[in-house]
Specification:
The chain is α/β, with parallel strands linked by helices. The protein is built from eight helices and six strands; from the N terminus they run αβαββααβαβαβαα. Helices cover 43% and strands 18% of the residues. The chain has a six-stranded parallel sheet with strand order 2-1-3-4-6-5, sandwiched between helices. The protein is globular, with a radius of gyration of 16 Å.
């Protein structure tokens, strides 16, 4: 996916932000995360969206895979109450991870979400992220189901411990 003004590929957050606008997303609930930083900035700059921690109005949730472990009970509410919920999760403990403490939750994220009744999709390229988010938005709001899109570290980039310590 190329931006017509540049030769470099469009970052996945730009077309995902456009999808959110297309689906008239007014509120974006989020847990701050570097993997979502571009999307968060786009949503915060968008005068038609309000970025908040949590909301009961139509919105989506942005968080990191380690945050999934802290939200198990919340996930069951969406399924049992038939509330549409789209969750975009940037993965840790995934491709190229340097931090061993991130691996267990990264490895369990899909299983935990599925066990709570959340449908899970995965994007490991910029294009796949956009395609999966588009499908998740349609499906969640048309079927009143929770759906998570896991955004792999092949897309967000793995941190390098050696660079962080020098």
């Amino acid at each position: 996916m190329k931006n017509s003004n540049q030769s470099k590929p469009t970052h996945w957050s730009e077309p995902v932000h456009s999808l959110l606008r297309e689906h008239q997303i007014k509120q974006v609930a989020m847990v701050p995360d570097a993997g979502h930083a571009n999307l968060i900035r786009l949503c915060e700059a968008d005068k038609k969206m309000k970025v908040v921690r949590l909301t009961s109005e139509k919105g989506i949730l942005l968080m990191q895979s380690s945050g999934v472990g802290n939200c198990i009970n919340m996930l069951s509410l969406s399924t049992s109450c038939q509330m549409p919920l789209v969750i975009l999760i940037t993965m840790r403990g995934d491709h190229g991870e340097f931090n061993p403490s991130q691996v267990p939750m990264g490895n369990a994220t899909e299983t935990v979400l599925s066990a709570m009744g959340v449908l899970v999709r995965r994007g490991d390229t910029h294009e796949a992220v956009v395609e999966e988010v588009a499908g998740a938005l349609h499906m969640a709001f048309n079927t009143s189901r929770p759906i998570a899109v896991l955004i792999g570290q092949k897309v967000t980039g793995a941190k390098d411990f050696r660079k962080l310590t020098h």
